[in-house]
Design goal:
Layout: H1 2-11, E1 19-28, E2 31-35, E3 41-45, E4 51-53, E5 71-77, E6 80-88, E7 93-104, E8 109-112, E9 117-129, E10 145-151, E11 159-166, E12 171-181, E13 186-191, E14 197-210, E15 214-216, E16 226-232, E17 235-243, E18 250-255, E19 265-269, E20 275-280, E21 285-288, E22 313-316, E23 319-321, E24 330-335
Parallel strand pairs: 4-6, 9-11, 14-17, 18-24
Antiparallel strand pairs: 1-2, 1-5, 2-3, 5-6, 7-8, 7-10, 8-9, 10-11, 12-13, 12-16, 13-14, 14-15, 16-17, 18-19, 19-20, 20-23, 21-22, 23-24
Length: about 350
């Protein structure tokens, strides 16, 4: 019946005093405030008996779906709105997004994006979360992601609404590295607790540790590494690698000098003459064609052995680059006699 009456009122040559139309200035707390193009406002009561309809024909909606500056028509009796219908859902708002740098509540200024942008706030600025629940300026801590909005229907240049899209994250967790990009300062991790891929900004100064608590830098972290990490104000401040991913590379060359399990290092000259040194893993395996059992002691300088040049030797397993203060990545390697 309310829908029928509303449609009738809109078509009538003379509008009933029960019919009103305007732009939503605010809605919540049992009140609907409408504004006309001259800036005049009228307040109506709404409650559980008030029905709300969207722009589509017969689309029943919740009151929370109606946003500031939507154009609506209403049926009201004695200041109580019984029917509210959205006639235009285009926002008449100037909207800017960014992360909070500083809130100057005394001077009603909001600084975003490292302080490079600032916005003058209206004395009655409304602060809400993403679900439309009321909040306050005190909830805007540094690195909160927000939208700041100015009603373009009002001549004032001050911003009247702030929507908190996301509060900063502070936590210590574990996960598997999905991406680490030093150029864009991006760190993505499959978080063990949430089961989701989470993305964060890397802090300018970041503490990186490898297994054994060895200090390192971001170049030592690879996709697939298992890590524990600390996030402060949505920025990663510390990463500790607890398990490194195996990278299946193969190195072929000629043994230089001697090798033993005691010193744990092998020196190799590759075909292009490059010398490289690698740490040996505890599970290194040595295979010599024609022998059922071999060890590191069976390898000698120049990859020559007492059995003659016809025999082929190879050592396979895991090793670490020696150039870094700790293991950067692991490689499989092979040594073959000529």
């Amino acid at each position: 019946m309310a829908t029928f009456l509303s449609r009738s009122e809109k078509q009538a040559p003379v509008k009933s005093p029960r019919y009103a139309k305007g732009y939503v200035s605010s809605i919540g707390g049992g009140k609907l405030v409408l504004q006309d193009l001259d800036g005049n406002t009228t307040t109506y009561d709404v409650d559980a008996s008030t029905v709300f309809y969207g722009k589509k024909e017969g689309e029943r909606i919740a009151s929370s779906a109606i946003q500031q500056t939507y154009e609506v028509s209403i049926l009201q009796v004695g200041g109580k709105a019984y029917y509210v219908e959205v006639t235009n859902d285009q926002l008449q708002m100037d909207v800017h997004s960014g992360s909070v740098y500083l809130v100057d509540a005394a001077n009603l200024k909001l600084y975003l994006n490292d302080g490079n942008e600032f916005y003058d706030l209206a004395p009655d600025v409304a602060v809400t979360d993403a679900n439309g629940q009321g909040s306050s300026l005190s909830a805007l801590v540094k690195n909160s992601v927000v939208e700041v909005r100015r009603n373009k229907l009002v001549k004032s240049t001050k911003y009247t609404q702030i929507v908190i899209k996301q509060l900063p994250v502070n936590k210590t967790s574990e996960g598997t590295v999905q991406e680490v990009n030093r150029d864009t300062q991006t760190f993505k991790v499959l978080d063990k607790s949430s089961g989701r891929i989470e993305s964060y900004t890397l802090n300018d100064l970041i503490n990186v540790r490898l297994p054994g608590d060895t200090p390192s830098d971001l170049s030592s972290i690879h996709v697939g590494d298992t890590v524990s990490y600390t996030v402060a104000n949505s920025r990663v401040t510390a990463i500790k690698v607890t398990k490194q991913i195996d990278i299946g590379l193969t190195v072929q060359g000629t043994l230089v000098g001697t090798v033993s399990a005691a010193n744990g290092v092998i020196n190799i000259k590759t075909a292009d003459g490059t010398l490289a040194a690698y740490y040996l893993s505890d599970t290194v395996r040595v295979n010599i064609q024609g022998r059922t059992s071999s060890s590191l002691n069976d390898l000698s300088d120049g990859d020559q052995d007492e059995s003659g040049p016809a025999e082929q030797k190879s050592a396979s397993g895991q090793c670490h680059e020696q150039q870094q203060p700790g293991p950067r990545f692991r490689e499989n390697y092979q040594l073959r006699s000529s």
